[in-house]
Amino acid sequence: MKLLTLNCHSWQEEHQLEKIKILAETIMEKSYDVIALQEVSQSIDSEVIFGVVKKDNFVQILIEELEKLGNTDYQFVWDFSHIGYDVYEEGIALLTKHSINKTTSFFISRSENTEYWKTRKIVGAKIRIHAETYAFYSCHLGWWGDEEEPFKHQIDALCHQANENEKYFLMGDFNNGAHIPDEGYDYLISKGLYDSYSLAKEKDLGVTVSGNIAGWDKNKQDLRIDYIFTNFFANVKKSSVIFNGENKPVISDHYGVEINIDEKDVGGKVDV
Fold it and tell me: Into how many domains does the chain fold?
């Protein structure tokens, strides 16, 4: 099983269409089973093409690029969580080439006002991969020290929604550095979650942000804030940072994380 998560920083990037093409070409090459994307935006004023998806939705453009490459395997779910930069509906997405049994989206922030930029929503899907069904959630969370929208509240709400009786993956931008003790990362682990990076037999440095970016304006160090968590002990063969200039070109202010799980071992008992 191959998984990818990436905060796209969509429509905030120079040469955005070229970077979408790089992402599409990589998906073609890697043939990921499930992809979680964050900061997946569309213009407020754009034309609706189906459901809540509009013509310039980042993930819709990505699907069209895949189709140009001859790949029609992928379907996606998307929902928007808040208005960004006054002109975008910013959301989250999941893509998969497998059968989707059920989809969901839900708020995890105290605020459910989509006009407020700190409002957070999760998109989830139950996906059948070979003989097993797993729940996948694309996640974009806030910051540990935020008094208005506490990280603890968001994680508690997320874990409450995730069914403890099924195997699930939490994938995305958690905005909490793994290097900071007694804050968001440790709180996640205290909820009984496994960090796929820690489980991986082969791994790199894991850095997904270098220097200052939006939300980390004063940051001067390398950070690991993008993760793939599970609620079960998966046999992760490899965890790699991608789109970092070494493993594929940079296409966002975040780098992506891809993992490869040994399929014969993903069906083990949930450990909660």
Answer: 1
